[in-house]
């Protein structure tokens, strides 16, 4: 559920400017404009208790001029990590179902025209699972250092997806990433083809960044320019 880089880094400067909404199970909201588009940030397991992902959300919302929200994927993680029953309650399949429920509730209330997802580490695995099981939920997905997907999940994804991975990744080794790309490429020229991008960066895990206008390349609606990895590593949040 986590990797060593989840425990590295430092606290970001500044204070969060968004709000916590009791209407959506304590989700964090950052507003960057009046557009009818939004991003769901699916974090690693440390999520909401830390201020770093909130500041990431604030910056994404500001620079992308859209709403940004994220939920506490694994509640009370500081107290439950040693507990096997707690880890079972927060296994990916359970978190996936809870995330889908919350996103649907948010969409019913907000009626966004475009809804995207950014998932990193544990949250990247959840984004992959949702992309496979509920492809209609998100218009596009960006994955940064996600949990390893299955072949079946990759084949089931019908949503434009961008992947960002370091060369030295504990989760997905280069050989596996090449297999993932072949699975996407095999769909070219068929009705099942989906736009995708896979980029590997030479930096270590804590410095992975999407440094391009990824969303503009894979989806005409949201025009993402993103920088992200895990919520404890501030070195990847650059000025857009």
UniProtKB/TrEMBL annotation:
Named from the GO MF annotations, one term is: hydrolase activity
Q: Which Pfam families match?
A: DLH (PF01738)
The segment(s) forming the Dienelactone hydrolase domain are 95-203
Report which superkingdom the organism of origin falls in: Eukaryota
The record, for InterPro entries, names: AB_hydrolase_fold (IPR029058), Dienelactn_hydro (IPR002925)
Cross-referenced Gene3D superfamilies, in alphabetical order? Answer: alpha/beta hydrolase (3.40.50.1820)
In terms of PANTHER family, this protein maps to: DIENELACTONE HYDROLASE, PROTEIN AIM2
Record protein name field: Dienelactone hydrolase domain-containing protein
The protein's organism comes out as: Mycena rosella (Pink bonnet)
């Amino acid at each position: 559920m986590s990797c060593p880089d989840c425990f590295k880094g430092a606290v970001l400067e500044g204070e969060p400017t968004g709000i916590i909404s009791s209407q959506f199970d304590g989700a964090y909201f950052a507003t960057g404009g009046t557009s009818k588009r939004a991003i769901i940030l699916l974090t690693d397991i440390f999520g909401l208790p830390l201020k770093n992902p909130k500041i990431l959300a604030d910056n994404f919302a500001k620079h992308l001029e859209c709403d940004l929200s994220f939920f506490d994927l694994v509640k009370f993680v500081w107290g439950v990590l040693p507990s096997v029953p707690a880890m079972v309650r927060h296994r990916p399949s359970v978190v996936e179902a809870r995330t889908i429920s919350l996103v649907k509730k948010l969409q019913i209330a907000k009626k966004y025209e475009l809804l995207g997802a950014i998932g990193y580490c544990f949250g990247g695995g959840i984004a992959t699972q949702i992309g496979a099981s509920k492809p209609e939920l998100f218009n596009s997905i960006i994955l940064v250092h996600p949990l390893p997907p299955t072949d079946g999940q990759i084949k089931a994804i019908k949503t434009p997806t961008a992947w960002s991975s370091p060369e030295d990744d504990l989760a997905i080794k280069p050989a596996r990433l090449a297999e993932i790309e072949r699975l996407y490429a095999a769909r070219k020229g068929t009705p099942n083809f989906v736009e995708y991008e896979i980029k590997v960066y030479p930096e270590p895990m804590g410095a992975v960044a999407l440094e391009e206008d990824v969303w503009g390349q894979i989806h005409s609606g949201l025009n993402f320019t993103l920088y992200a990895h895990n919520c404890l590593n501030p070195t990847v949040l650059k000025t857009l």
